[in-house]
Amino acid sequence: MEKLTIFSDTxxxxxxxxxxxxxxxxxxxxxxxxxxxxxxxxxxxxxxTEQLQDVTAHAEMLVITAAANHFGAKYLSECTxxxxxxxxxxxxxxxxxxxxxxxxxxxxxxxxxxxxxxNLLHPKTEVQKGLLEEESISMLKLFFKQRx
Length: 148
What we know:
This protein is of the alpha/beta class. The protein is built from five helices and five strands; from the N terminus they run αββααβαββα.
């Protein structure tokens, strides 16, 4: 198990989980994301599809826009994305075009995740999956159980 430090993958995924909790408190599907560059969080976001009435307002899309605005550039090839659920094909396409160095997600998504279509990310993007998976799955299951 990775030692928890302020610059660890676990720490950054915990920050994404905090964003997911914000989404949940707003009645949104609890998915959160952070973008990290040089061990610094430069952007945070969570799902806002209900609040904005915009099907593209996924955590990943919002955090990509915020990170690009931070740098004033469209390529994020020195950055890592941490997200609590495997990105959908739309988000994977945006991640591909932004050319992220690394994408890390907590829970895989057999129904809506991009991997069911093959690797849609940039060929140089490193992938890590399953980090804090149980925490993410628990949050998602509870959210949907409460709405049924």
